[in-house]
Design a protein that fits this description.
By secondary structure, the protein is α+β, with helices and mostly antiparallel strands. It is built from ten helices and twelve strands. It has a single domain, classed as Beta-lactamase. About 5% of the residues have low confidence.
């Protein structure tokens, strides 16, 4: 892998560019609607794809494959940065319980220096809205990294050393700058060295996201899709430090539909106030994009607001989006790494948004 491809893959959990199965009996038309999007994902180079949709009371999950058995709602993919919305939900739950406030300054244990620029300190809200000023990655992450598993070697000691070398790009709270490091630190601030357990205990388990986890369980392994990069099979990513950025999160289309269902109807979830808080706009990037806690909110030409996040790892690309006004949602997972070009978005993002609009 050349260095350009390596750097692209290492930051893939960001996955952000500024973008404009089983069906219920009454949802048979959803199958016909979804199928062309699966075909287009395969035509764009995905070895396999699975897509889940919600339209009102109806849901549908379907998959397709270039060869062999097609994935279904229980097939396991690496999620990438959609996992940031789980971390943001954990933050919102901590706020609703009175454990922290959004304006609480970032605090880490002794030996983990928090970078400063000017008099204003980084807050938890800054981390959750990508306005902390932190760079995308720690400055010492890539030097010793395996191109096919770039976070696996990174330890808490490395993080401490990296923070000592980190310089903020902008003053906290002033500018949107997407940061995996920022979300990794947010999770560590909430549950230092216990992030995996926190995400399961505070988000995945209460929402019944049974296969959404940072560590592949033995029972999940037979159901896992193999990731690909440029047509070659590649290993999963592993991370023990910046997991809150979504770098090593696994999930399924079934779990993503449950999660998106909670976003569409927070009143039916175990923690309505926390979910509402994550979706509330907190920073305006430009006239078409605002940021909540983790979620991005895009304003379309017809004035509709789509709430979304995308992501990826070295072998997977994902996107999830929903429109609360119409009661529609789409999650699409493919088992290949892809990047947007200067003149077009990633296929998985374009297809997700297109399908959501068609619903």
């Amino acid at each position: 892998m050349n260095r350009r491809s390596f750097l692209g893959a290492a930051t893939a959990a960001a996955g952000i560019s500024l973008l404009p199965g089983h069906a219920t009996a009454a949802g048979n038309d959803l199958a016909a609607l979804v199928r062309p999007y699966l075909d287009r994902a395969l035509a764009a180079g995905s070895p396999s794809v699975v897509c889940g949709v919600i339209r009102g009371a109806h849901t549908h999950v379907a998959g397709a494959s270039q060869a062999g058995r097609a994935p279904d709602g229980r097939t396991v993919f690496q999620l990438g940065s959609i996992g940031k919305t789980l971390t943001a939900t954990a933050l919102a739950r901590a706020v609703s319980r009175g454990r922290v406030r959004l304006d609480t300054p970032l605090a880490l244990p002794p030996g983990f220096p928090v970078p400063r620029k000017g008099s204003r300190r980084i807050t938890l809200a800054d981390l959750a809205t990508h306005t902390s000023g932190l760079p995308s990655l720690p400055p010492n992450l890539l030097a010793e990294a395996d191109p096919y598993d770039p976070y696996a070697h990174y330890t808490l000691d490395d993080l401490a050393a990296g923070l000592a070398e980190t310089t903020l790009n902008t003053q906290p709270g002033s500018t949107y700058l997407y940061s995996n490091l920022g979300f990794g630190l947010l999770a560590q601030a909430l549950a230092f060295d216990d992030v995996d357990a926190m995400l399961w205990r505070d988000v995945a388990a209460p929402l019944r996201l049974r296969d959404t986890t940072t560590t592949l369980r033995p029972d999940m392994a037979p159901r896992k899709a193999t990731g690909h990069l440029a047509g070659d099979a590649v290993p999963d990513w592993h991370d023990h430090v910046l997991t809150g950025a979504g770098t090593s999160v696994y999930s399924t289309a079934d779990d993503m539909l449950r999660f998106l269902g909670a976003q569409l109807r927070p009143d039916r979830s175990p923690f309505r106030d926390a979910i509402e808080l994550t979706q509330r706009p907190r920073f305006t990037v430009d006239r078409t994009l605002r940021v909540g806690l983790g979620w991005h909110l895009s304003t379309l030409p017809d004035a509709r607001t789509l709430t979304w996040h995308n992501g990826g790892t070295g072998g997977f690309s994902t996107c999830a989006a929903f429109d609360r006004k119409s009661g529609t949602a789409v999650a699409m997972l493919v088992n290949t790494f892809s990047q947007e070009s200067t003149d077009s978005p990633r296929p998985v993002d374009e297809l997700t948004f297109g399908l959501l609009e068609a619903l």
